Amino acid sequence: MNNLKKILNNLVQLSAVEWNNFKEKIVTQEYKSNTTIIKEGNIANSIYFIEKGLLRTYYLQNGKEINTYFACDGQFITSYASFIIQTPALENLETIENSIVHTISFTTLTELYRIDSKFEKLGRMLAEKNYLCVIDRTRKMQTLTAKQKYLDFIETYHKKIVQSVPQHQIASYLGIAPETLSRIRKQISIS
Fold it and tell me: How many percent of the chain have pLDDT more than 70?
C-alpha cells in the first residue's frame, strides 16, 4: 500500500490524516490469473489500483476479443465509462496474471469528493489522464503504420506489459493481425 500512498502524494499531497481516512476505505483483493473482475453488461462499481499484477480491458466483437487497455504494477484501471456514469460496462476487466489490487468504490469515492477537495482533484486528474490516453491512442491508431504502432507500444508501455502480455492480445490492442505482429517482430530482431 506504500506504492499507492506515494502515487497519491505525488498527485494531491495528502496529509497523514487524509491518507488514513482514505486508507480506511480501501479494500485489498487478490485475484488469480484469468479472473474476470468486471463483466460486460455489469456496472463498474470500483476503481482498482494494481499493487502487483497485470490486467486488461477488452470487449467481444463477433466472438473475437478486442483489447482496449493494459495496466500493471502502480497503475489504475477499471471500465472507466461505466465507473464514471454508473452504467453497464461495454467491456470486461480481467487479470492476465495473479494480481493484488486496492479498490475503492464509486460510492466511497463520491463521498470523499464531498468531504475533501483533494479527492475531487484526484478524481479529475484520473479522468483527465484517461481522456488523454484515449485521444493519444485514437490518433496513433489512425495515423501510424502497423510497424510504427508496435514500435511505439514497446517504447512507451511499461516493460512488464510489453514482456508479459500475450502477443495475440497485443496484436488485438494495436488493431493488427497476429501474423502481421509476428512478421514485424522478426523484422525488428533482424535489424
Answer: 99
Report pLDDT digits (tens) over 68-100.
Answer: 999 999 999 999 999 999 999 999 999 999 999
Q: What are phi and psi of 20, to 5 degrees?
A: -65, -40
Q: State residue 191's pLDDT score.
A: 56
Going from the C-alpha of 106 to that of each of 20, 44, 128, the distances in angstroms are 19, 8, 17
- The per-residue pLDDT for 2 is 86
Q: How far apart are CA 175 and CA 102, in angstroms?
A: 31
* Residue whose entry in the numeric block shows the C-alpha cell 510489453: 162
Give, in order, the Cα–Cα distances in Å from 83 to each of 78, 86, 93: 7, 5, 12
Average pLDDT taken over every residue of the chain:
94
Q: Identify the helix (H) or strand (E) that includes residue 5.
A: helix 2-12
Q: Is the pLDDT of residue 190 over 80?
A: no
Question: Is residue 79 within 8 Å of 29, Cβ to Cβ?
Answer: no
Q: Are 33 and 100 in contact (CB under 8 A)?
A: no
